[in-house]
Design brief:
Low-confidence stretches: 292-296
Order of helices and strands: HHHHHHHHHHHHHHHHHHHH
Mean pLDDT: 92
Shape: globular
Radius of gyration: 21 Å
Number of strands: 0
Strand content: under 5%
Largest sheet: none
Length: 361
């Protein structure tokens, strides 16, 4: 009973952006673990990580997610493991690790809540990269979210669909998609979701009141302080959002900085809009951007797998790599197995050798 109370109250605090909820959710997990109640402990961690992801406190979210995955994988709570992997996908999406995010949702899960998250992540990655399939993913996610009828599902889908409309230049559609979910988020005081939807509505030309004390990066950006928002996004480790904030600058140098970030992470549609803006301003020497064959890793390794390869090159064990990356050992085992398969080798030493030969490191 105590764990349930702490869990529900702590989660409510986190949705209101009250950090007292962090301690309550950690206590909820500890209370449950003290009586070997793994299910309630896992639920507390799931709620904590979700809220931290909403707030874009990614390093803290990753730290708690690593601990949570260790618990649920060891206890073989498959439903929680699946959902936590969807949270990992949200984390990779926020960091613009597109391939890693897609790899985590490649096999769509059956449970509807997890499936809705997976489709939202997949659709957003494809939208931001300019890949085919974004509309189909977000359309299915929207149907699932409507069936589940929870703001926690509908809101993120609406945000992604409004972003898609903005990238198409359809401001009216963006307003129509985002406004109903913003109104409900505002009524429920779901601060992080309210901030994101407010930013999208402002971009779409709507008038939205933003509290002066709301320090969420989206709220700062919605108030028009693009420079501070860019700094906040950079500190959070979110290059796509940093570039989007810089793209609002009246200074051509900032737009060129935004373009460099977008080209580096392969965010083609937004990079195209920034280039068009630069051309409209009469800028002549605009970087052409990477050619399409070089935007993908030729060996099919994800960003995270390349990172694991670098740590293999340091001769770290899987346990040491897991500790360095704050994930479970089983997750690293899976990455190493995938690396060996993709590079066509049977040992870690050979994988490092081939990676050096291919220039991957």
């Amino acid at each position: 009973m105590l764990s349930h109370a702490l869990n529900n109250h702590g989660t409510a605090l986190m949705f209101r952006a009250d950090d007292a909820g962090i301690a309550e959710l950690i206590e909820a997990a500890d209370v449950a673990l003290a009586v070997d109640d793994m299910e309630d402990a896992a639920r507390a961690y799931v709620n904590l990580v979700w809220a931290l992801l909403d707030q874009y406190r990614l390093d803290l979210a990753e730290r708690h997610l690593g601990r949570a995955l260790e618990l649920t994988e060891r206890a073989e709570f498959i439903a929680f493991v699946i959902y936590q992997r969807m949270e990992q996908a949200r984390l990779e999406l926020a960091r613009a690790h597109w391939d890693d995010a897609l790899a985590l949702v490649e096999e769509l899960p059956e449970p509807p809540h997890s499936r809705c998250v997976a489709l939202t992540v997949a659709g957003t990655v494809r939208l931001r990269r300019g890949d085919d399939g974004a509309d189909a993913d977000l359309g299915e996610a929207g149907r699932l979210a409507d069936a589940l009828d929870e703001l926690q599902r509908r809101g993120p889908v609406a945000a992604a669909r409004a972003e898609a409309a903005l990238l198409r230049g359809d401001l009216a559609a963006a307003r129509a998609i985002a406004r109903p979910e913003f109104d409900e988020a505002d009524r429920r005081v779901a601060r992080a979701l309210r901030a994101e939807l407010a930013y999208l509505l402002v971009r779409a030309g709507d008038e939205v009141a933003i509290a002066a004390d709301d320090e969420h990066p989206f709220a700062v950006q919605a108030r028009g302080d693009w420079r501070r928002a860019a700094d906040l996004w950079r500190a959070a480790g979110c290059p796509y959002h940093e570039a989007a904030a810089l793209a609002e600058s009246p200074d051509e140098a900032d737009l060129l900085d935004a373009l460099a970030i977008l080209d580096r992470i392969g965010a083609v549609p937004l990079a195209r809009r920034v280039r068009a803006d630069l051309r409209d301003r009469g800028v002549r020497s605009i970087p052409r951007g990477p050619s399409s064959p070089t935007r993908r890793n030729p060996e099919g390794l994800t960003d995270r797998q390349v990172g694991v390869l670098r740590l293999l090159a340091e001769e770290l064990t899987n346990a040491e790599i897991a500790d360095r990356l704050v994930v479970s050992v089983r997750t690293i085992d899976s990455h190493v197995a995938a690396i060996l398969t993709k590079l066509g080798v049977s040992t870690r030493r050979d994988a490092v050798r081939v990676a050096h030969e291919l220039g991957l490191l």
